[in-house]
């Protein structure tokens, strides 16, 4: 009999583990089918590698895990009475009372569109007194029951929306979330299990989110309403991103607040008191578990109140001004903020009755945004654009009525705005956004100094892009057809081959701005005045320092964002860049790279800038050509191929390629014969690496194109040497004349001296 009993339990236990494995393998597939939006995983727990962790009659072991367990009122008398991890899931068995599992407190302040998903199951024919309760704490103490299940229910999965507008009453100002699962079982053959817990968010609504890999997201599109989404060094994010045109900043719909009927989390019973709000004759003000307050009024009867009724906030016969007030809400980074709500009146509004919406920015005086003094028909939408700017806001709905038949109601209170969104990196690494990006809002693409951020997914929409940071942002998907403008505040905006930007490219601020790549831009002005881009640099990577606002010194960083290592880097660094409309203004710089002096292919052997229309600044302006050499073997700064001082004299290189005949050129004060005077040349780097100290550069024009012409000029030492060769014969002749004159003078002096002596004797 004992042998049979052991055999029975072994079969039962094995079957239970097998059925559980099948269930937990199947449920995620079902969940995936219903996944419509990309969800950022804020918290997850699958209990892997945690076997035995939990509580039993033998004690508690939660070492190495971030969750906790509690024996609320259970009777755990031995090792078979427990709430612990068994077979990769958390299992409750024979607890004879309530035992709970609680997740760690998780920060949710910067997210909206929250969803809680998990799998739960039972086996062994539960009684009606055996149950599972799933509930949540927000901000540490506000508890709300999400699910209560008793008797047999088999296997199931929970997918509970916790976002604003759902039945979950957690407010949009909640900062933390913690899950609690409570179970009661009363026999060793009856079990309840939980697994695959996942708290996700569909929208970043504020703050900074740094992502290291795709595993931090479920599939689909992730929304960015306001804040910074950064990738860590080496990370690739393939999730599609939707930059929202409007983001919920704060909302309140009063769901679940009509009465305080929150189930106690350690039993299945519930307690009921009165609605959230203020009511004379019951218990004063009740705002437990909500983030708003209510004050004022002169209610003196039980049917006079300002409280939640049937999912709406209702003012009834309040007598004097009564105020519903939101918490203080951050509006930092938002523009175009709007207030909205649905309101109605019942019983008519008398002359002294009012209904107003007010706001206070940064704790300042309250300003009236909406005023209603006449009847409001059923479910009327009211809205207004916010007046004023600041970093925080507090909202009020203020009402007054004076008869028991008069009621003012409002619901679906919302504060929305257009956020400030930044994508990229802030550590100077190399990372890639490979998913599509929908520009329903303007965005800043950031790359920190020394870093490169690749946007290889299609960027679409009509909003603008601003490039920030002293690194490189590279747009490489040919499907990037967004129509907004492009503003470079710092660093390089790199347009990849096949990419055509429909909007103009402009500069902003005092930091060094660079545009280049192998693609096409609609228009750009290269110069050093307001709104102009400082440098143009065809090809990938950058040729001179991006951290200095004016540096011309060669500082090569190649297409991979790091150190050059292959000839492919050199090939990629040379580029053919196109600006449909191009303007060269005073102070502008062209970082022109060359890797082969014998090369005949613009865009392959040396940089070329293509244009349809070209304009020059006025007389007296100067534009710098920065001649920068590349080592063709690896793309580093170094001597280009075939850079011989004498043999290459007379070489010319097309650096501006325009339409034949020059029809698109606006010369201004210049002409084909004088345009060389518009340019100034810096060739220190070439001279250093190639020993071309005697080189000379000029610009010439021919049939719509402009050429850099190189000629060899002897060094000063060469002039001295050659001059010396001519002087030597002259010196030799001069020496002969001097010697001859000296001899003649000596003869004359001796003869004269002899004559004097002879006369003296006589």
Number of domains: 4
Strand content: 35-45%
Judged by helices, strands and strand pairing, the structural class is: mainly beta
Largest sheet: 12 strands, mixed
Mean pLDDT: 85
General shape: elongated
Weakly predicted, low-confidence segments: 1-19, 21-36, 260-274, 279-283, 561-567, 715-728, 753-762
* Share of residues in helices: 10-25%
Rg measurement, Å: 40 Å
Tally of helical runs: 4
What is the chains' assembly state?
single chain
The number of E-state strands comes to 59
What are the main properties of this structure?
762 residues, Jelly Rolls, 4 domains, ten-stranded parallel sheet, 4 helices, elongated, disordered C terminus
What does this entry show, briefly?
The protein contains four helices and 59 strands. The chain has 762 residues and is mainly β.
């Amino acid at each position: 009999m004992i042998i049979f009993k052991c055999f029975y339990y072994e079969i039962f236990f094995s079957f239970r583990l097998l059925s559980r494995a099948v269930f937990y393998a199947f449920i995620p597939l079902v969940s995936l089918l219903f996944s419509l939006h990309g969800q950022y995983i804020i918290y997850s727990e699958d209990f892997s590698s945690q076997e035995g962790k939990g509580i039993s009659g033998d004690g508690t072991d939660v070492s190495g895990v971030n969750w906790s367990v509690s024996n609320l009122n259970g009777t755990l008398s031995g090792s078979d009475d427990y709430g612990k991890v068994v077979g990769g899931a958390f299992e409750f068995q024979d607890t004879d009372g309530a035992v709970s599992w609680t997740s760690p407190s998780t920060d949710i302040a910067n997210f909206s569109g929250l969803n809680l998903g998990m799998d739960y199951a039972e086996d062994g024919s539960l009684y009606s007194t055996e149950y599972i309760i799933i509930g949540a704490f927000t901000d540490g103490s506000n508890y709300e029951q999400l699910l209560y299940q008793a008797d047999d229910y088999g296997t199931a999965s929970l997918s509970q929306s916790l976002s604003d507008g759902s039945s979950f009453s957690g407010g949009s100002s909640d900062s933390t979330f913690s899950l609690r699962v409570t179970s009661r079982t009363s026999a060793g053959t009856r079990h309840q299990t939980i697994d695959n817990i996942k708290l996700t968010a569909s929208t970043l609504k504020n703050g900074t989110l740094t992502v290291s890999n795709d595993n931090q997201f479920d599939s689909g599109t992730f929304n960015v309403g306001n804040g910074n989404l950064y990738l860590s060094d080496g990370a690739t994010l393939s999730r599609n991103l939707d930059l929202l045109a409007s983001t919920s900043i704060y909302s309140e719909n009063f769901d679940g607040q009509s009465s305080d009927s929150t189930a106690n989390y350690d039993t299945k019973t519930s307690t009921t008191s009165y609605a959230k709000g203020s009511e004379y004759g019951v218990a004063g003000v009740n705002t437990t578990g909500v983030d708003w307050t209510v004050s004022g009024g002169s209610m003196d009867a039980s049917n006079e109140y300002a409280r939640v009724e049937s999912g709406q906030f209702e003012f009834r016969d309040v007598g004097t001004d009564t105020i519903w007030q939101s918490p203080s809400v951050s509006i930092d980074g938002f523009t175009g903020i709007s207030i909205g709500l649905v309101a109605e009146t019942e019983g008519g509004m008398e002359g002294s009755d009012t209904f107003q919406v007010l706001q206070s920015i940064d704790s300042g005086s309250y300003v009236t945004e909406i005023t209603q003094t006449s009847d409001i028909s059923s479910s009327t939408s009211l809205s207004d654009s916010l007046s004023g700017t600041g970093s925080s806001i507090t909202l009020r709905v203020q009402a007054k009525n004076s008869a028991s038949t008069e009621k003012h109601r409002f619901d679906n209170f919302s504060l929305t705005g257009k956020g400030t969104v930044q994508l990229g990196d802030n550590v100077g690494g190399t990372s890639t956004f490979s998913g599509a990006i929908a520009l329903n809002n303007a965005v800043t693409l950031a790359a920190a100094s020394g870093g490169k951020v690749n946007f290889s997914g299609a960027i679409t929409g009509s909003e603008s892009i601003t490039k920030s940071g002293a690194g490189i942002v590279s747009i490489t998907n040919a499907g990037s057809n967004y129509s907004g403008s492009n503003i470079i505040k710092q660093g390089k905006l790199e347009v990849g081959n096949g990419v055509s930007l429909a909007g103009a490219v402009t500069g902003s601020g005092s930091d060094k701005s660079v545009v280049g790549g192998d693609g096409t831009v609609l228009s750009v002005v290269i110069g050093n005045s307001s709104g102009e881009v400082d440098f143009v640099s065809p090809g990938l990577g950058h040729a001179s320092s991006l951290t200095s606002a004016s540096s011309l010194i060669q500082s090569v960083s190649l297409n991979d964002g790091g150190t050059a290592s292959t000839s492919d880097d050199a090939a990629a660094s040379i580029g053919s860049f196109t600006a449909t409309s191009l303007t060269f203004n005073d102070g502008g710089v062209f970082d022109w790279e060359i890797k082969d002096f014998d090369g005949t292919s613009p865009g392959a052997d040396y940089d070329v800038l293509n244009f349809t229309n070209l304009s020059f600044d006025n007389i007296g302006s100067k534009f710098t050509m920065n001649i920068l050499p590349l080592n063709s073997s690896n793309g580093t700064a170094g001597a280009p191929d075939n850079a011989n001082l004498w043999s290459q004299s007379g070489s010319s290189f097309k650096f501006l390629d325009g339409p034949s005949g020059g029809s698109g050129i606006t010369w201004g004060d210049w002409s084909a014969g004088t345009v060389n005077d518009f340019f100034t040349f810096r060739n220190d780097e070439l001279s250093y690496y190639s020993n071309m100290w005697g080189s000379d550069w000029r610009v010439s024009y021919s049939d719509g194109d402009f050429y850099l012409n190189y000629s060899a000029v002897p060094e000063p030492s060469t002039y001295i040497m050659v001059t010396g060769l001519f002087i030597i014969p002259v010196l030799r002749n001069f020496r002969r004349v001097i010697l001859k004159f000296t001899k003649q003078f000596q003869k004359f002096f001796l003869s004269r001296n002899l004559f004097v002596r002879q006369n003296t004797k006589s």
